[in-house]
Structure formats: structure tokens, C-alpha cells
Amino acid sequence: MSGQVDERHFLDHEEKSVVIVMTSGPSQRHRCATPFYMAAIMASMDAQVKVFFTMEGVKLCQRGVPEQLTAMDGGKTIIEFMRDAKAAGAKFYMCRPAMPGYEMEVDDVIPEVDELSSGGELADLILSSDKVLFF
Q: 19 near 50, Cβ under 8 Å?
């Protein structure tokens, strides 16, 4: 390289919004850490990151579940990954209509959840975001 900077490796730093739709839960524990790791990275890069828990993903918002769950034996607990994402600025939304199917009550929800939402809210988030990831 003759002193030129390769611009392809730099972020454009425009405001970005990302929604991570978290459908995986305890039955697929190996899929439960990476979304929060990615959320933490993107939020620390000034992206607006929202994680929406639906389907079995709502189980990750039930008290006692993410505190005991790891993606791999001997790894960090899922709640630690979730708290890293929150500390970086990610917001957590949980699908209220999914709760009865997993025998969850409002009092069962971990304090890290910012909002109990509807499917309509998820649709709005998807349509208004720059990027949508599904796990």
C-alpha cells in the first residue's frame, strides 16, 4: 500500500437501527449467547439495538432461566450476555401475547426487559429498522 487508506474497512457512522428477533430459547441453548454478544457490539458502535423476544425466546426473560442457562458447558450465563448488551445500550422488548403459552406472568419477567409489547409493535420495529436479524 502506498500510504492510501482502504476506506472499505471503516464504518460510515451514520445512525443505524437493528432489531434482533429472539425466537430461540432454552431448548436451543447454543443459539442463546451470540445474539446478545452481537447486540452489545452493535450498540457500542452507536447503533440503536432492540431485541424482541417472542416464541420460545420469551423463556429467556423468565426469572431463574437466563441465570441458570449457558450456551455451552462452563460458559458465561445467558443473563451475563444479556446484561452486557443492556450496558452497551440495547433495549429489550418481550411479546406479551406469547407469555400464556409459556405459563409466564408479568411478575415472572426479569427486570432487564424494558417493555412488554405486542406483535404489532414487532411489525413496526421490523418495518422501521435498517437491519433485522433472527435467532
A: yes
Q: Is residue 35 part of a domain?
A: yes
Give per-residue pLDDT as tens, 49-79: 999 999 999 999 999 999 999 999 999 999 9
Per DSSP, helices labelled H in 16-77 are 34-44, 65-68
pLDDT attached to residue 15 = 72
The answer to whether residue 25 sits within a structural domain is: yes
Q: Domain for residue 101, yes or no?
A: yes
* Whole-number Å distance between alpha carbons of 77 and 98: 23
Look-up of cell digits 415472572: 108
**Helix 34-44 / helix 78-88 crossing angle, nearest 10 deg:** 20
Kindly state whether residue 113 falls inside one of the protein's structural domains: yes
Q: Copy the grid coordinates of residue 18.
A: 437493528
Instruction: Note down the domain range covering 50.
Output: 16-134
- pTM exceeding 0.90: no
Rg (CA), the chain: 16
SS3 content of the chain, % helix, strand, coil (to 5): 45, 20, 35
When the pLDDT of each residue in the chain is averaged and rounded to a whole number, the result is: 92
